[in-house]
Design a protein that fits this description.
Order of helices and strands: EEEEEHEHEE
Strand content: 25-35%
Helix content: 10-25%
Mean pLDDT: 97
Number of helices: 2
Distance between the termini: 15 Å
Shape: globular
Low-confidence stretches: none
């Protein structure tokens, strides 16, 4: 049975998708971009600021699913410039100090709303 997970703290979807979907003990978190739900605006500043907002948004969805960053088993990171990888990796790494999840990082030509980073996750409860 499929259960839709929604956090009012995280940005509302900008298309026909859910923030996350739970099936059994697995939660699939849709790609999060650096939108600040409080303002509805994109996070401004550096790629580190954008990545931090993405991770906060993931945290809000995790909370709504009854999970934490320690429950994440896989992440997919999409970036528009691989030259930003080390900065993104530094911010991302603060959330996984032990037993980090599996991951891939892929450079893409464009992301929604012109952002520079998007991250999706698979979570095991």
């Amino acid at each position: 049975m499929k259960e839709i997970i929604h956090s009012k703290k995280a940005p509302a979807p900008i298309g026909p998708y859910s923030q996350a979907v739970k099936v059994g003990n697995t939660v699939y978190i849709s790609g999060q971009i650096p939108i600040d739900q409080n303002t509805g605006n994109l996070a401004e500043g550096t790629i580190a600021d954008e990545t931090e907002q993405v991770m906060k948004n993931i945290g809000f969805v995790l909370e709504a699913a009854g999970a934490s960053f320690q429950n994440i088993v896989k992440c997919s990171i999409f970036v528009t410039d691989m030259a930003n990888f080390s900065i993104i990796n530094e911010v991302y790494g603060k959330y996984f100090t032990t037993n980090p999840p599996a991951r891939e990082t892929v450079e893409v030509s464009v992301l929604p709303k012109g952002v520079n980073v998007e991250i999706s996750c698979v979570v095991e409860l």
